[in-house]
């Protein structure tokens, strides 16, 4: 499937306790923690400023979100940074995180001893690695492409780190080994335009 991707602003959900502990979350519905809620608030303010500096308004974009609780709360906090009416945020199950199957809830370091390599130690074949009862990155790329094929204009997306890795591979043609080893930030807005992405950290000093 060949897709011409529109302009995207992508925000990963804020931190959860499982993130802080280094556990695989996947499709488990783990809530934001205090740090994660603060990250979402900062990302909302950053997104508002990015759009304003670009001369754009939020109603020019479709708003899409993974239906898990941590992403829905992140989206709600991001939207609170805007003072004008916004388009409805549409939940889409195709944006749910890569499922790690029987390994969800396990520590990254525990599994890296032999069952599943952790980020920073993976080879290109990890793109196709499917945990028992789970999904591979390639599996999820198929549902992300299905989602992308239905976009009719620029979009704002709140989803997960694995989805962001996949978008970088699909849009930028990032090599598989780099994609699966890249660490997606939770304190940033990622802007995709053309076939490139720019990461804007929420703590970045921005001149009005």
What can you tell me about this protein's structure?
By secondary structure, the protein is of the alpha/beta class. It has seven helices and six strands; from the N terminus they run βααβαβααβααββ. Strands 3-2-4-1-5-6 form a six-stranded mixed sheet, sandwiched between helices. Helix 2 packs across helix 3 and helix 5 (137-149) packs across helix 6. The longest helix is centred in the N-terminal third of the chain and has 20 residues, at 34-53. The model has no long low-confidence stretch (mean pLDDT 96).
What are the key terms here?
6 strands; 208 residues; 14% strand; Rossmann fold; six-stranded mixed beta sheet; alpha/beta; globular
SSE topology:
Blueprint: E1 8-12, H1 17-21, H2 34-53, E2 62-65, H3 69-79, E3 89-91, H4 108-111, H5 137-149, E4 155-159, H6 161-172, H7 176-181, E5 188-193, E6 196-201
Parallel strand pairs: 1-4, 2-3, 2-4
Antiparallel strand pairs: 1-5, 5-6
Helix pairs in contact: 2-3, 5-6
Full CATH superfamily name: Phosphoglycerate mutase-like
Largest sheet: 6 strands, mixed
Shape, per Cα inertia axes: globular
Taken in chain order, the helices and strands follow as EHHEHEHHEHHEE
**What's the structural domain tally?**
1
Helix percent band? 25-40%
* CATH class (first level) name: Alpha Beta
């Amino acid at each position: 499937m060949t897709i011409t991707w529109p302009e995207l602003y992508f925000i990963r959900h804020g931190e959860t306790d499982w993130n802080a502990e280094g556990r695989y979350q996947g499709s488990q519905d783990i809530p934001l923690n205090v740090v994660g809620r603060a990250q979402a608030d900062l990302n909302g303010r950053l997104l508002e400023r990015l759009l304003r500096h670009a001369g754009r308004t939020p109603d020019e974009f479709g708003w899409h979100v993974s239906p898990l609780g941590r992403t829905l709360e992140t989206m709600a906090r991001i939207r609170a940074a805007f003072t004008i009416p916004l388009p409805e945020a549409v939940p889409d199950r195709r944006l749910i995180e890569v499922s790690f199957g029987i390994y969800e809830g396990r520590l990254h370091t525990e599994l890296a001893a032999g069952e599943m390599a952790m980020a920073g130690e993976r080879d290109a074949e990890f793109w196709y690695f499917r945990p028992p009862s789970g999904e591979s990155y390639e599996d999820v790329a198929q549902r992300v492409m299905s989602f992308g094929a239905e976009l009719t204009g620029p979009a704002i997306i709140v989803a997960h780190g694995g989805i962001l890795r996949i978008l970088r591979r699909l849009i930028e043609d990032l090599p598989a080994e780099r994609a699966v080893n890249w660490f997606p930030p939770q304190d940033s807005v990622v802007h995709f335009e053309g076939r490139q992405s720019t990461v804007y950290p929420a703590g970045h000093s921005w001149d009005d």
